[in-house]
Amino acid sequence: MIFFASASANQNDLVEKEVREAGGQDIVTSSGGVEFSADLETAYRFCMWTRSATRLLVLVHRFDGLQSTDDLYDHSMTLPWENWINPERTFAITETVSDCRWIRNSHFASLRLKDAIVERIRSKYDGVRPDVDRDNPDIVFHLHVNRNLVRWYVDFAGRDLFHRGYRKAQTQAVLGEFMAASLLYRSDWYKKLRAHLENPELEAPTLLDPFCGSGTICIEAALMATNTAPGLLKTESFAFLKLPIHNDELWQKTVDQAESMRIKNECKIIGWDIDTRAVEISKANAEAAGVADLIDFQVRDFTKTTEEDVPAETGCIVTDPPYGVRLDSGSAAIRRLYTAMGEIIYNCFCGWDICILCGNSELLSFIDMKPNRTNTLINGGIECQAAHYYVFSKQERQQMTERALARKAERLAAPLTPGAQMAANRLKKNLATIGKQMEKEGVTCYRLYDADMPEYSAAIDVYEGKWISLQEYAAPSSIDPEDASRRLEELVIATERTTGIDLDDIHVKRREIQKGANQYTRRGSSSHFNIVNENGHKFIVNFTDYLDTGIFLDHRPVRKLIETMSRDKRFLNLFCYTASATVYAAAGGALSTVSVDASATYLDWATKNMQINGFNTLNHFFYRDDCISFLKENRDVFDLIFCDPPTFSNSKSRTGSFDVQRDHGYLIRSCMRHLSSDGVLIFSTNYTRFKMFGELYDEFIVEDITDSTIGADFARNSKIHRCYMIRHRTEQALVINPPKRTVKKIVKKN
């Protein structure tokens, strides 16, 4: 017979391995599972032992070339359904349909198959037909259609292939048994378990699930550790027991063989949960699975774990902590949980392997460790990441630190090339002037170098004396690429030598003209964030994933100006990016703030910046919108507006592009329509050749404040930005909606 074992996304390799171990032949793996040929005994053995498959179907027939649902009905009528069902048995039909032009409604296709089965059986049993029972059928038929290829199956194992039967109760968010088993298969705990089973002299691995919920991971681990076949928990409930091909003697032989293969094991398996009810449920489920004596369930709050609470010197954490998708948990609370998890794992579980399943990959960044590898799993329709970490022991950390220091000492002792020495001399000079000035002003994030020497065309920004963002300006085509690469390397070496900041904390990126969507494209996926300080405020920065770090250093004086002007003002921040200006406005006592940006990523970043500065009240609003569309559709009035548009951009939410030189007149007028009569618009742009339209000087009071908004660290590049303060002229009326007579004229003209 030909069988098909279905698998969850990205778990085909696990199912294929189980098929091979059961004795399947002619194995073909596809996107949805594994097809193989097997006799009845092999199929029984697979059902008994599989931990990761979700379904096992036996093929009735396949045909390529159907063109309509009528063809489906006619062909289905020719199949010997009487070999599988009689009028005394109930049945149901499931279906999967993909890329089929002649089936628009998959449920209709299953109805046509149902009609064909009923008519076929009616013709064979003198007009008597079987009944359909969708809830508890004796037999389930499955229809699979891909384009014109149609397969008809009988469900061989039924639901109990992945429902072990031990779950007597469950908590709110549940991890499926097959998903827990797949997670364990992927973990380092399973590798160590296999090594222990093959060589009992090796220490049995300890497993801890600190967010055990219903106990599923711990129970599946106990079944693996004792080599207990999952099928032994439900020997009387498989669908094949009601099929006419079932051989009870052969099945009993399979059961007896599985029973004889159970072993005792000294693995330490521990489950913690902060919820007393969850621990009680876990204990009841473990009792039903027959592994209660192997698992130690305890009521514990993982966030309060100390080194004394760690159950073994080495071990493995495999867990599915909450991630705020199904559970009604505040995002801030979830982030705090993951931050605490990372700190506790790093400080208390030295020498342990960690496997964390998370349905929100961004939360993994709060663990603040780099995973060795990741796997993607689909849990209940949610794409999840299984992140695997190894926590170095204290001895290993000491050895790594010593090696890193030795490498650094070797680098620092090496003589500099003439070019690197020249770059180092300039950086030393800048540290003595700019660095001292920044220190005097209390500035910890500043620009140290900005293409001061044409041969070394780059910008070097220092953050907190801990990190460097070195942005290389793209060399012209006339420069030999090898020369450009050599000079960049010399500049990096000179930067480490003069600043004392370790090479690993010098982040190098290439800055070139960006247009359209490219200017906001994510460049990495480390999701590693740091916090920096500026004028008493905190800001989240990222040195690896984006071209810009999250804060524009040249706008530091502009932000300070906004803070001094914000008292009791209604503040609007357009193209807000990460809302650093909004933080200053809130700190300055703004009555309310509105931050607008088209990027969901940056708005989330903006929200976090506000939160870490303590601005969580309801008078701070964030809107994901195209800023020009926002100005057009919104009717609110503001006392202080900050508008810092990109030089050029495309937006999915509006037609056409935005060019700051071409379109700034329309943008400024739109802003002014929302500005109170005595309000102020601060307009800034980084376009180096920007020129304000002359007519704007006639319409409004325009003051060029560029010189006063450029800090000492940017003074050598006065074109870093242009900044203007714009006000209404005296007695000028605020107009958001045009007068009615104007509207009438427009209507008549149209």
Sequence-ordered SSE layout with sheet pairings:
Elements: E1 2-7, H1 12-22, E2 25-30, E3 33-37, H2 40-49, E4 53-64, H3 69-77, E5 91-98, H4 106-124, E6 139-146, E7 149-155, H5 177-186, H6 188-198, E8 207-209, H7 216-225, H8 248-260, E9 269-273, H9 276-289, E10 295-299, E11 316-319, H10 331-348, E12 353-358, E13 373-379, E14 382-390, H11 394-413, H12 418-441, E15 445-450, E16 458-463, E17 467-473, H13 481-499, E18 506-511, E19 530-534, E20 537-541, H14 556-565, E21 570-574, H15 580-587, E22 592-597, H16 600-612, E23 620-624, H17 627-633, E24 638-643, E25 648-650, E26 657-659, H18 660-672, E27 675-685, H19 694-699, E28 701-704, E29 722-727, H20 740-749
Parallel strand pairs: 5-6, 8-9, 8-11, 9-10, 11-12, 17-18, 21-22, 21-24, 22-23, 24-27
Antiparallel strand pairs: 1-3, 1-4, 2-3, 4-7, 6-7, 12-14, 13-14, 15-16, 16-17, 19-20, 25-26, 27-29, 28-29
